Every structure is written in C-alpha cells, then in structure tokens.
Amino acid sequence: MSSLWNWGGKYFGYRRGDSLFTYSGVEAGRFRGEDVFGEDGRYLGELRNNNRLITNLSKRSKRSNSFTPRKTTAHVKYVDYVGYVMYLGYEDFPDPSEFEKKISACPGKFKIRLLPIEML
C-alpha cells in the first residue's frame, strides 16, 4: 500500500495493488500501468513522481474496462504537502470528495439486500 497526493499537494488516499482508494475507503479508480481509470472506464489521470496524481488533458479520450467500485476501511487522512507547479496541458487530479458524492448518491450500491424466500 502506498500513500498518494494530488499534484496540488492534497492527500488523496492510497494504492493497493491496481486499485486507487480515497482515504475514506472508496475505490476511485484502477491503474493500467501509470494511468488511472474511473469506474466507467474513463481516464482520470496518472501517477507521477512516485506519489502524485495529475491529469493529462491530452489523454481524456482514453478508455479502459469499467468496474464496480468497492468500499473498504477508512483511515486517518495524512497531512497535505506543498503543491507542485502545474505543467502546461495538465490539471490537478479530481478531489477525493468527488468520489464520495458518487457513493452517497447510490446508497444501496454497496449493501447486500436479503430477500424473503417467497420472493426468490
């Protein structure tokens, strides 16, 4: 597990295997090499400088496989770092709160619902 910050220095979360999680435990994306793709398969950004996430605007049209995001245990947010100067043609990686909104908009997405035997 490696901790990750966005290019502006805000703590994002961590990488476990090929998955990118926010510090609150929401799976925000999956890695394909250094590139990160969202649950719908759209390019979100890439990993630079070993622990920083940034979005390359010229890669916005890239696609990968979609997936169903997982929710895991949250952990205490690490302190933010000083941000780097933004490269031309790039923008900062999406804020972790954007992924929290997606999960809260679909509250049943991560719950198991048991049905009475009569309904099966």
How would you portray this structure in words?
The protein has 120 residues and is mainly beta. The chain has one domain (2-119). The chain is built from one helix and eight strands, in the order E-E-E-E-E-E-E-E-H. It has one helix spanning 96-105; strands at residues 2-6, 11-16, 19-22, 27-32, 35-37, 43-48, 52-56, 90-92. Strands 1-2-3-4-5-6-7 form a seven-stranded mixed beta barrel. A hairpin with a 4-residue loop joins strand 1 (2-6) and strand 2. The longest helix is centred in the last third of the chain and has 10 residues, at 96-105. The radius of gyration is 16 Å and the shape is globular.
Salient structural properties:
single chain, 120 residues, mainly beta, seven-stranded mixed beta barrel, 1 helix, 8 strands, globular
Low-confidence segments, given as residue ranges, are 110-115
Q: What is the CA-atom radius of gyration, in angstroms?
A: 16 Å
Helix content: under 10%
- End-to-end distance, in Å? 40 Å
3D shape:
globular
Number of domains: 1
Total number of helices: 1
Compute the average pLDDT. 87
Strand order of the largest sheet: 1-2-3-4-5-6-7
**Residues in β-strands, percent:** 25-35%
N-to-C series of helices and strands: EEEEEEEEH
The largest β sheet comes out as: 7 strands, mixed, barrel
Structural class: mainly beta
What's the number of extended β-strand segments? 8
